[in-house]
Amino acid sequence: MSNTCIGKNSIWLTAGAVLTALLAVILLLSPKVLASDCDILDNKNHSSRRNLPDSAINTDQAPRLTINPDAAEDIPLPFYKLADNTYMLFGNISTLNKQNRGFNANAGFIVTAQGVIVIDTLGTPVLGRRMLSSIHCITDKPIKFLIVTHNHPDHAYGAAAFRDINGITIIAHRGTVDYNRSQTLESSVAYRREILTKDMTGFKPLQADLYIKAEPFEKKRIRLGQEVIDIYNTGKHHSFGDLVIHQVNRNILWVSDLAFNQRTTYLGDGDSAQILKAQDWLLQTFPNARLMVPGHGSAQTSPFPMVAKTRDYVSRMRKTMGQAIDDGISMLDAVQNVEFEDWQAVPLYEMNQRANANFVYREMEKAYFDE
After folding, report:
1. How many angstroms separate the CA atoms of 68 and 148, rounded?
2. C-alpha angle 226-228-234 in degrees, rounded to nearest 5
3. 144: helix, strand or coil
4. From the CA atom positions of the chain, what is the Rg in Å?
5. Rounded to an integer, what distance in angstroms lies between the CA atom of residue 43 and that of residue 47?
6. What is the spatial distance between Cα 168 and Cα 217, in angstroms, rounded to a whole number?
7. What are phi and psi of 41, to 5 degrees?
């Protein structure tokens, strides 16, 4: 049913039928009916698009979405239902390009009777605004909290779309302040504005209302209605500062980039030793988690093989680069010669392998001379 069809036939309607038609139009504008027009996927239905996986949990499939640069900002992005009140936007497994336009990471939201909690914001202000449209498909409840897991562009650059929402509290790691003062921010924004000029309209660096300053692996608890959320400081393992979010009631963990699924990890920032320490903490603290949602790739149930796989990659890279330093091998030769054959078919291996080796070599060389 559509307004167009009603308009064409309205001249033949009786007064009672006109009233019925008007009620139908009102219902069309209600959140519940609008929700039926959105791409909401779960394990009970299947995507009609060949470029979307049927599920966002325990799948080897990955989205292959092409974002239309001319699409209206009130057109929702597709998303998946993970639990009764929990939804995930499943990003492409890719670097930033003109096809995904910054939709190459995951984000999500939790709907409660008192409002909405949002986790990450995708990679541009335009995507942030379209994410808001996705949320409005599900509920007309106010957005009360935005939690940004870390400062990397694919997770945080959509935050500008949320800044002026009345009554929202934005939460981020305290390392975000340092990132905002860095040349890394300047170069990243310049690059995105060069290739995604329109999408970056309205960009402003993330400014939080609450910065997490807890000691490593300590938490800040927030509540919204019956929903209890613990926000853990997991140090600077991947960026200027990283958070892990635990939905206590649902026992769902949003681990962000502490573990990568369906792609090769990125080690060009953060601290590789801290990755291993944080992963140990994660598995020891939450062995019985119902679900882990990474920053890239599908969510997983126990035993969370993505954590072990990411850990194996990082450990092997540290061991290989450490041995190269001990053997007096130059950084150039070490980086050029490192190959992990069992990873070569994994997406983004060619893109990240040399950069990761370079980062870890320099990191371990510094530690070697600091001893």
Report:
1. 25
2. 170
3. strand
4. 22
5. 10
6. 25
7. -120, 145
3 state SS of 319: helix
Q: What confidence score (pLDDT) does residue 18 get?
A: 35
pLDDT band at 47 (very low <50, low <70, confident <90, very high): low
- pLDDT number for residue 253: 98
Q: What is the DSSP letter of 31?
A: H
- Averaged over 194-209, what is the pLDDT? 97
Read off the tokens for 276.
Answer: 């291993």
Residue found under tokens 């150039």: 332
Domain-by-domain residue ranges, the chain? 1-37, 38-306
Check pLDDT > 80 for residue 43: no
Encoded tokens for 48: 């009609």
Give 181's strand partners: none
**What is residue 40's predicted lDDT score, i.e. its pLDDT?**
78
Are 347 and 263 in contact by the 8 Å Cβ rule? The answer is yes
Cα separation of 322 and 364, whole Å? 6
Give the integer Cα–Cα distance in Å for 233 and 216.
5
Q: Which residue has the higher pLDDT, 371 or 143?
A: 143
User: CA dihedral in degrees (103, 144, 147, 139; nearest 10)?
Assistant: -30
Both tokens assigned to 335: 């980086």
Q: How far, CA to CA in Å, does 276 sit from each of 75, 106, 180, 246? A: 40, 22, 26, 19
What architecture does CATH give domain 38-306? 4-Layer Sandwich (3.60)
Structure confidence by residue, pLDDT tens digits, 212-258: 998 999 999 999 999 999 999 999 999 999 999 999 999 999 999 99
Tokens 């990003």, residue located: 91
Query: What size, in residues, is the chain?
Result: 371
Q: What does pTM read for this prediction?
A: 0.88
User: What DSSP designation does 121 have?
Assistant: -
